[in-house]
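Our preliminary data section would be incomplete without showing what the modeling component actually yields. Below, a chain of 299 amino acids is followed by its predicted structure, encoded as tokens that our downstream tools consume directly.
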Amino acid sequence: MRIGFIGLGRMGANMVRRLVRDGHEIVVYNRTPEKTREAEGEGAIASYSIEELVGKLEKPRAAWIMVPAGDATEAQIAELMEHLEPGDTIVDGGNTNFHDDQRRHPALKAKGINYVDAGVSGGVWGLKVGYCLMVGGEAAAVEPLVPIFTTLAPPNGYMHVGGPGAGHYVKMVHNGIEYGLMQAYAEGFEIMHASDYELDLGGISQLWMQGSVVRSWLLELAAHAFQVSGSDLEHIKGWVADSGEGRWTVQEAIDHDVPAPVITLSLQTRFRSRQQDSYGAKVLAALRNEFGGHEVKTE
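Predicted structure:
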């Protein structure tokens, strides 16, 4: 199948490689031409503008956008709309807020353009093991893209989960759960790191993957991190970003009166990781000193 692919970052480039490897014809475009030329050298069809990309696709056309959510995605959709025709399809594979999907779908449909939202999980390992795909949109728009989804995903790793926005909605909740899982692992390993025992945390990670009820791919990644950086992780700074899905998951829980304390607290912990010296912690220390004369450490 021939499809356009816009965005050749860490995820996008590997997705293109997986598609080319399976015999698909992928017309690529990236804002920086160096990455376009690199993809061309690996079997993709190069284009150096959105107009050129659209011109190299067969009608009805399909173009997959894999750029950061928000303004970058909006700009690519707007530029594509200058060249697409009724019957063509846009796929947004980024980490878009599902509310944006719900807004875009009717606006594009009014112009005859199909819109599909695809939540993609797999990170940099997806090239080797495949990507879990959570796809939203109308069935008539999704069905022609099944060969692409089938190549990108491992066996049973693709699902049409619902109507417009459903793919990114499910991916949003997926990432909220991921926050909680990661935080639980982080706290458990910190307890062991602080203990009086000299524990081999990398070895314990490997051990827990052998039949333990807490085994998971995230635990495998922890074992790999300990192997590369050592148990002290001394070359890694404890600054943790968030790409938005955790916040949106918490907001969705609030909107529907669903208690989600683990996901909420894991998100708040990420915020705390970005503070060099928490003002709130200073207030706590001052209060303990005031009522109990507890020691205060000064700079």
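The longest strand covers residues 114-121. The mean pLDDT is 94. Preliminary results of this kind motivate Aim 1 of the renewal.
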